[in-house]
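Posted in: Structural Biology > Protein-Ligand Complexes

Title: Requesting predicted complex, adenosine-5'-diphosphate in pocket

I'd be grateful if someone could produce the 3D structure tokens for the following input. Sequence and ligand are given below.
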Amino acid sequence: MYIKNLFLHNFRNYREQKVEFDHGINLLIGPNAQGKTNALEAIYYLITGKSYRVRKENELILWGAKNFYLKSTFKVQDLLLNLESYYEPNKKIMKINQVPCRRLSDYVGTVNAVFFSPDDLEIIKNSPTERRRFLDLLISQLKPSHIALLNSYLKVLRQKKSLLRREIKTRAFKEELLVWNQQLVDIGSKIILNRLEFTKKLNEYALPIFQSIFPGDNTLELVYYSLNRKDIEGVLADFSAILENKMAQEIERKTILVGPHRDDLLIEINGRPARSFASQGQQRVIVLCLKMAEMEIILNEKGEYPILLLDDVLSELDGKRRQYLLEYIYSTRKQTIITMTEADDNIESEQATIFQVLQGKIRRCN
Ligand SMILES: Nc1ncnc2c1ncn2[C@@H]1O[C@H](COP(=O)(O)OP(=O)(O)O)[C@@H](O)[C@H]1O
Ligand SMILES: [Mg+2]
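-- Reply #1 --
Done. Output follows.
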């Protein structure tokens, strides 16, 4: 699959811009703060209905403007597909082939993309939130029903939280709490199972990639860690009982203490947490492996590679790793859009379509 063109209106620092992409390698070159990342963000937003960087869409509107609009034509399985996004505060319209989608889950997944930026190092370094987000974004692209599950789960959490904060605790209180707990178990278990399934898939691809970069006995393993346990089958069997056990404590502390909203995806190299035991360079390689594994999982499920968006990552990798990534990009046909501040000697201009990005304008150079 690939993106043929992109039209941006009042998106970030773009007032009005149209770009025609090549189905191979596209380079967006320009100094800092010109709009390179913003262009990738627009593509990612069109595909997933979400920004990679911010939660609030208001930040995506060109300063001083009232709304933004994005439109693209994609080629998916030899079919042309139009996606459109319109946003103004409190109004969001997403369309596939001119037809508005009622829910995000009807929209997401038609086109796929993998976004890779230096900030992804946070997947390893930061809190479990980043790792759950990484996992949920991947699952959502391939199983849009996961988005609906996450939304329902959030609603239950909100209800349960407001109940726990209530002052008067009658018998009805306890009954209501049991209802929310039951829903938490029902929806939560499905979320855990989806995450477990995709953790397995990531492992399947990430380990061989990791070993081809670090030959020898090095291992990379991802472990889904739910309710502070690694044996997920046991967790699912005990879920209700665990909630029951925590009930008194939750009531006393007026807060929710257990559930998949606190789970983690452990990333281990040679059996140790990568977060504290891997060097900065190794951590970068692990993220690279995760991203390449995402590419392969999507290829496997969709029969086509997703669009690869590489934001400033080539300069972050050492020579050997950069070469590895470039060979991967060249090896089989996959559309790649790469941003960089200066032309890279390793990429010959005949092999790529080059664009210059300056002050919210994109100009094709070859
Ligand atoms: N909503 C917005 N409206 C106008 N300009 C914006 C908005 N959000 C960010 N910018 C500007 O966009 C520029 C950053 O663009 P970015 O794509 O991140 O740069 P880079 O080319 O370094 O990747 C900055 O100059 C920033 O001030
Ligand atoms: Mg940038």
